[in-house]
Amino acid sequence: MSELGPVVWPPAPLRTERLVLREPEARDRAAYIDLFASSEVRTYLGGPRPRAELESAVPEVPGRRPGVLAVDHDGAMIGIVTLDRRDAQRPGHIRPDAGEAELSYMFLPEAWGRGYAHEACAAALGWFAAAFPGEPVVLCTQMANDRSVRVAEKLGFTEIERFEEFGAQQWFGAWHPVPRSG
Length: 182
Description:
Layout: E1 14-15, E2 20-22, H1 29-37, H2 51-57, E3 68-73, E4 76-85, E5 101-107, H3 116-131, E6 137-142, H4 146-155, E7 158-165, E8 168-175
Parallel strand pairs: 5-6
Antiparallel strand pairs: 1-2, 2-3, 3-4, 4-5, 6-8, 7-8
Helix pairs in contact: 3-4
């Protein structure tokens, strides 16, 4: 996230009613591997990666880079939220110079259906809006991933366009922070 601008990373842990968004730690490695090896989680993300490949490739502290937040519930990682710059070569942009901040997330199947994705992403968007006042955020997900589209809409993302990418119809939306009143 060094490309996002002059912010201190990682931010102090972001706390919600039920979750803590924090820098990834060594204790998250097994859950991180589970995320990327899960056929359920990776259904709309290019499919699961082989567990053996992940076991040898994932570092001791997985995901430790600017833009990645581990989502912790009761002391265990249940997912990740990332904020990165959208690659200018990919379709889907709202600025002529591209490079918008892009929100993405993955949660373990046992965490699905409890509102954790919405809660965690809302906290990440709140942090982003404070760090980058007025800057929009984009989100892209497959149209077939209706759960993800619903989360995006509930977070306040507005559909901008649909396009074909990775052999599937994509939903592309933007979120604009609400200006703070004095």
